[in-house]
Amino acid sequence: MNNKIANLTQAVQLNEQDLLASIDRQKLPGHIAIIMDGNGRWALKRGLPRSLGHLAGMESLKDIVNICCDLKIKVLTVYGFSTENWKRPQQEINYLMNLTVEYLNKEINELCEKGVKVNSIGILKELPQSVQDIIANSVERSCNNSGLIFNLALNYGGRVEITDAVRAIAAAVEMGCLKASQVDIQTITDHLYTAGQPDPDLLIRTAGDCRISNFLLWQLAYSEIWFTNVLWPDFRRQHLLSALVDYQRRERRFGGLQK
Ligand code: FPP
């Protein structure tokens, strides 16, 4: 990362060691999902182009992947580009696409060393060829890894995902492979991009907005949600640890009663 941005990144005040000590390793979430919001505002606050906010956000992503590996989290899903983000100026879209290529090119060796299994969720075929190629390459190179499953949500939308699942199920019914009466919650779960993975236990959204923006609509049914005002480029492992401390204080009832 260029030094200018490193110097601008807000110093994190939280004490990592204290936070680590207060975390119960037996009660960590299996799956963490993150809406990495606030790159643009981070840049605007500093009089910089939005692209530099995204570049700074890449550094946060690296730090968060590392801490997830250290904590042996099973699945991390990050919202890199939504089906609605095509509404942004073409220049910004191009920048985000190139950044994804740069990120995977630079990081894939280290990700593999850490045992990370790269996966993508979203409609890949609509992305530029360079992005499709680097994703295919990263998925292939990391497919035998058994550590963190790292889902990059690119051209991802929850409604499109559910629509795709319904279409595939309807086709199976039409072909006589399945009866309509056999379609249940598990059938739908099995047709999502995240088939075979646990639902997120914890959703984090940075930058202050309290909405889920078409992210993992089905999978978030019982996730704990943690919102923070911290902008994504300022978000570091200490913030994630704070979210985990808070998560562990919550009682999850899944519609049942207090134990
Ligand atoms: C939201 O901030 C962020 C994005 C749309 C892109 C996320 C991308 C990164 C964190 C870069 C690294 C990611 C990959 C996949 C390499 P915003 O632009 O909506 O911010 P704003 O709400 O302040 O305008």
UniProtKB/TrEMBL annotation:
One of the record's GO molecular function terms: ditrans,polycis-undecaprenyl-diphosphate synthase [(2E,6E)-farnesyl-diphosphate specific] activity
GO cellular component: cytosol
BP term (GO), one: polyprenol biosynthetic process
Gene3D superfamilies: Decaprenyl diphosphate synthase-like
Name the record gives this protein: Isoprenyl transferase
Transport is among the record's keywords: no
Magnesium recorded as keyword: yes
Cofactor(s) the record lists: Mg(2+)
Comment on bound cofactor: Binds 2 magnesium ions per subunit.
Domain of life of the organism encoding this protein: Bacteria
Signal peptide, first to last residue: none
Residues that coordinate or bind Mg(2+): 37, 224
HAMAP family referenced in this protein's UniProt entry, alphabetically: ISPT (MF_01139)
Assembly: Homodimer.
One Pfam family hit: Prenyltransf
Active-site residues from the entry: 37, 85 (proton acceptor)
The enzyme's E.C. designation: 2.5.1.-
Keywords, ordered alphabetically: Magnesium, Metal-binding, Transferase
CDD domains per the UniProt record, alphabetical: Cis_IPPS
Family statement: Belongs to the UPP synthase family.
Binding residues for substrate: 38-42, 50, 54, 82-84, 86, 88, 205, 211-213
Functional summary from the UniProt entry: Catalyzes the condensation of isopentenyl diphosphate (IPP) with allylic pyrophosphates generating different type of terpenoids.
